[in-house]
Amino acid sequence: MEGIKVEETKPQQAAKSEKQNQKKPAEGRAMRTGGKKKASGVIPSEPIAGVRDFPPEEMRKRTWLFDKFREVARVFSFQEYDAPVLEYEELYTRKAGEEITQQMYNFVDKGDQKVSLRPEMTPSLARLVIQKGKALMVPVKWFSIPQCWRFETVTRGRRREHYQWNMDIIGVKEVTAEAELLAAIVAFFKSVGLSAKEIGIKVSSRKVIEKIIDDLKIPKEVFAQTCIIVDKLDKLERADVVQQLVASRLIDTLSVKSIEELGALIGEEHEAVKELQKLFWLAQSYGYADWIQFDASVVRGLAYYTGIVFEGFDRTGGIPRAICGGGRYDRLFSTYGAKDIPSCGFGFGDCVIMEILEDKKLLPSFAPKIDDIILAFNEELRPAANELAMALRIQGRAVEIVLGEGKKLKWAYSYADRLGADRVMLIAPDEWKERKIRVKDMKKQTDKDENQYDVLYDDLVKQ
Ligand code: HAM
């Protein structure tokens, strides 16, 4: 069988380096030389460290995943939008010390404009909503699947580019919006075969932290900063955190494990408690109560969240990174000089979920689907092969014409085998004189005569 010869060492090195990368990020990173020129005139065949190629076999997986995202968005009646991957840098420059602002792929363009590849979609969404202004009917229920860029430490489930399914509801102040978003996330998990035993969503509210900050008379301006520190709790020593937060009351509050306990601590009538209670009550009617759990330590790492926050995680302990995350951001628009609109949404990356689905063997087979392969016995008969192919393609069949000259029938059979095609059709001189085509049914691996037959062109294209 013919095939393209490739330098064997490169894919092997890439796979090896990727594996090492997953185990020991620091060492792996040092090993990856993607982007460096080896010798003059020779470009590296690997992509830049932390970013991915999507050859057809990977592209099929991606398309499958995106189709699942899109289908959930459709049944929840969200409209798809997009925005440029290149944005004004100032859209992302917030002062709360978020990781995301330190991870930007930013540069000054040739027009002296400070720009950045988008690390997330929410600021672009806000820009679009501000741009549309009053012409926009609320609530806005929009979704998108943008590629986002962050100069992250590359580990399992975290890369320097990722696709992120975003669903946002703009213009609803009630927790009914968060309940709807969580329903969509759970619908997605179910659609890919995951259950509440395997996946959980931790839910809390930033209003809890806001209340403690208020009680402790900590200035309101440090609210966002406090949330960022709290988000890193598991990565820091408690003593450091205590020092950073000045008071340990906050940490005590964050270890609260139920909404009842939270009520006892900050008051039954507090807005945060009321909203969380309502959300958990609504979850029952949606049928996803067993998927969500209250966890006061969840705050999310972005500065703009103001209310309910949530993150999906692997209950079986596979990858310790959030599968998805989101929350309410009622005060983002005013940071762009516009009037605030109550908003909430989530981002759901493509990396962690694919790892989980692969680990749990939940990915379907992604073989390309080719129906027919057509071979012309000689070049004189090629026009007949093309004619037949076009007639079958109009019917919606996926048809491949053998394009190389002088290919033998045996070659076409093994090619069809490799591609998993249903049929091989031969345009042969004697048969074609009678407008007949020799067909071999590749799926019937029985007797030679049973799976081969001649059929009239007109009958074949009529089927
Ligand atoms: P985020 O928590 O920064 O939120 O990211 C959301 C999700 O994107 C994460 O849970 C993860 O699935 C994925 N993700 C983030 N960074 C990476 C990375 N380096 N590699 C792979 N996956 C990653 C946001 O971005 C918010 N803008 C989401 C949002 C939308 N909130 C409201 N609306």
From TrEMBL:
Top-tier EC class: ligase
Domain Aminoacyl-transfer RNA synthetases class-II family profile, chain residue ranges per copy: 67-401
A Gene Ontology biological process term: histidyl-tRNA aminoacylation
Cellular-component GO terms for this entry: cytoplasm
Catalysed reactions, as listed in the record: tRNA(His) + L-histidine + ATP = L-histidyl-tRNA(His) + AMP + diphosphate + H(+)
Biased composition (Basic and acidic residues): 1-30
Keyword Flavoprotein annotated: no
Protein name per UniProt: histidine--tRNA ligase
Organism: Acanthamoeba castellanii
Gene name, Swiss-Prot/TrEMBL: HisRS
